[in-house]
Each structure stands twice: as structure tokens, then as C-alpha cells.
Amino acid sequence: MSDSSITLHVTRVAFELPDTSPFVIKTEVQLKMAGLAYERVPMIPPQAPLGKLPFIHDHGEVVSDSTFIRAHIERKYGVDLDAGLDARQRAQAWAIERLLEDHLYFAMVWFRWIDPENFARGPARFADSVPEPQRAQRREQMQAGKRAELQAQGIGRHSPQGIAALGVRSIDAVAALLGQQPYLMGASPSGVDATALGMLACVLTPFFDTPLQRAAAARPNLVAYVAHMMQRYYPAHVWPV
User: Fold this and answer.
1) Could you give the CA distance from residue 50 to residue 131 in angstroms, rounded to a whole number?
2) pLDDT tens sequence across 136-191
3) Is the pTM of this model over 0.85?
4) Distance (Å, whole) CA 220 – CA 143
5) Which residues contact 48 (CB under 8 A, 6 or more apart)?
6) SS3 assignment, position 99
7) Is the peptide bond before 182 cis (omega within 30 degrees of 0)?
8) Pairing relationship of beta strands 6-10 and 38-42 according to DSSP bridges
9) Residue 149 needs a FRET pair 20 to 30 A away by CA distance; which of 85, 143, 188, 201 works?
């Protein structure tokens, strides 16, 4: 790592996604929107300063959490990712971001981590590097930790059907807000589109079979939006939807 450039600490390319974390995708796209050069460095969350990814090293300064990373790059580099939006639109963008990150995210995580088949297909593989005798126990610990997080957040207290209903309601809300616009706030991309790409791509990936994936895939405007955003910001990535 060089202290002369931005280093973005990420998870990994997997699940047919450019990164397994919607928050890493969000930050990476916002760095691209800002026109800033960066280097991707894979890491596991326990090694991160706050135990979560992404975080960045920027000329020796460490900034954690995607929301604070955005604030940092806008302030330090004189960038406004919401340029052209008025005060009301900026408030609406923030409300959409909270819908995505504080609601839809947790429904997506439940179906990725707690559903037995999806867990075995995806997150359980994160323990593949653990010595075989400890692998099963490590996977149980990983899933138990995520279950406790979802229970504390609240969504994990519901049945799978209830979680699906809540997640689909958020998907419907985003689809209605997007309508036939090319981007969430109108004709040009803004910061919230990076958040939406990360979350909706993680929902839409066919790698996992979930009611959320099926609901999002049934909204043509969301499918087209994610495909367009992937082509714009990850042109080398083969998006399967």
C-alpha cells in the first residue's frame, strides 16, 4: 500500500457481483463518480478498523464507513456528488439511501446468510480457508453471529414470509421512485445511485434464489437500471441479469 494514493479495502469478487458487499460497491462507484484513482485491496471484515468494510487509506488518513468515506472525498477533493439537486431532492436522496441501507439490506442479508441453501452456496464458502477440522464450527459461528445481528436489528425476529414481505415493499418503493427515469433523481447520476446499484445488484444477482431476487427481477425498470449502471461503472464485469 502506498500513502500517495487512495487504497480501498474491499471484500472479494463473488456471487456474480463485482464485490460481495453493497457498501463496497457504493463506495467504489462514488470514487469513480468523483474521478478519483484508487487501488482495491481485499480484506476480511474482522481486520478492518470498525470490523466492517469498506474503509480507505487516503494519503495516510484512515476513513471507515461508506457514508463517512463519501463525506471525506467530497470535502477533501471539492466534489459534490449531488450537484444539481436542490435541498428537497437532497433530502429525498438521503431518505432513499436509508430505505436501502437500513431496511432492504437486512432483508437481503437474511436470505443470503440464514436461509440454509443460500448460506451453504455463498457465505459458508468464506470459511474454506479454515483448516478442515475447524471448518464446520467456524461456519456455525459465522451464521450465529449474523443471526444475532439480525435479531438485534429486528428483522430477524420475523418469519421468512414476513421478511420477504418487508423486503418486497422496499423493492416496490424504489421501483416506484425510479419510474422511467434513467437515474433515481432524474436525468443524471448522483450519490444515491451508487447506493442503489450496490443494494439492488446484491438483491438481483441470480447466484442466490430468494423471493427478493424474484420480486426485483419482475420490475423491468429496476432490471434495466442496474444493467445500465453496471455497464457504466463496471464495463468489464459480466452482469448476468
Assistant:
1) 26
2) 999 999 999 999 999 999 999 999 999 999 999 999 999 999 999 999 999 999 99
3) yes
4) 33
5) 9, 55, 64
6) helix
7) no
8) parallel
9) 201
